[in-house]
Amino acid sequence: EVQLLESGGGLVQPGGSLRLSCAASGFTFSSYAMSWVRQAPGKGLEWVSAISGSGASTYYAGSVKGRFTISRDNSKNTLYLQMSSLGAEDTAVYYCGKSSYGGNPSAIDYWGQGTLVTVSS
Amino acid sequence: EIVLTQSPATLSLSPGERATLSCRASQSVSSYLAWYQQKPGQAPRLLIYDASNRATGIPARFSGSGSGTDFTLTISSLEPEDFAVYYCQQRSSWPYTFGQGTKLEIK
After folding, report:
1. How many angstroms separate the CA of residue B79 from the nearest CA in chain A?
2. By the CB < 8 Å criterion, does A106 face chain B?
3. A52 touches A59 (CB < 8 A)
4. Dihedral of the CA atoms B23, B29, B31, B36 (nearest 10)?
5. Which whole-number Å values give the CA distances from B34 to B20, B66, B107, in the listed order?
6. Is B31 exposed, middle or buried (0-12, 13-18, 19+ CB in 10 A)?
């Protein structure tokens, strides 16, 4: 059974940093691209970042480029999102997701339960 | 960035009725379009990928069609559990984008 378990969310002050983790199990982690998608309270979905199965290719939304860094440790079956220079606009539930096929980002067929990041003083 | 526009914003129907949801892209996305369902407090659920392929475990009453810039998600006969928010999403070019969502509510 595929499982994705996010952690690391919480309350952070504006300008601060936070690292999210997503522990994966139930599939060959290194064979699939992974992504982070966020959802601000009461709003729609935004694809934040993605990384290929090997980790060689990374992708960022314009709203986070230069502030967020996606990475993965295939030996630990874990995906990360390092977030810095956080602002109120980054307040959201952050989901990690597994690509439905292949090592490049595609539709997300499995999602974590989400972790809430709140940026506030 | 490719903008996806979903219509209508809200669709009010009764169980047993047919639902037709639309997604229009600002430029061609070929067939690289997916549909997701999201219920309150839950993560999204993949329904359709690459325009017309049902994801694993998705009932046959869900179907997708279209290519290029115009896409449709059809639910042939609504069940009570189908009332939710539906999002389309393109993977034709980065940044991948979602539509703003269509809320399917009980009439």
Report:
1. 22
2. yes
3. no
4. -40
5. 15, 11, 26
6. middle
| A27 has a chain B CB within 8 A of its CB | no
Per-residue pLDDT of chain B (107 residues; tens, 9 = 90+): 999 999 999 999 999 999 999 999 999 999 999 999 999 999 999 999 999 999 999 999 999 999 999 999 999 999 999 999 999 999 999 999 999 999 999 99
Q: Do B55 and A109 touch (CB under 8 A)?
A: yes
The pair phi, psi for residue A89, each rounded to 5°, is -70, -10
As a whole number of angstroms, the distance between CA B18 and CA B21 comes to: 10
Pairing relationship of beta strands B102-106 and B97-98 according to DSSP bridges: unpaired
Give the start-end residues of each E strand in B41-82: 45-49, 53-54, 62-67, 70-75
Q: State the burial class of residue A16 (Cβ atoms within 10 Å of its Cβ: 0-12, 13-18, 19+).
A: middle
Token couple for B105: 């509510």
Are B98 and A44 a contacting pair at CB < 8 A?
yes
Give the SS3 label for residue A89: helix
Average pLDDT along chain A: 97
Query: Tokens for A53?
Result: 């199965």
Compute the distance between CA of residue B91 and CA of residue A50 in angstroms, rounded to an integer.
Answer: 11
B7-27 pLDDT tens trace: 999 999 999 999 999 999 999
> What is the C-alpha separation between A14 and A34, in angstroms, rounded?
27
Tell whether the model's pLDDT for residue A103 goes beyond 90: no
> Structure tokens of B55?
């994801």
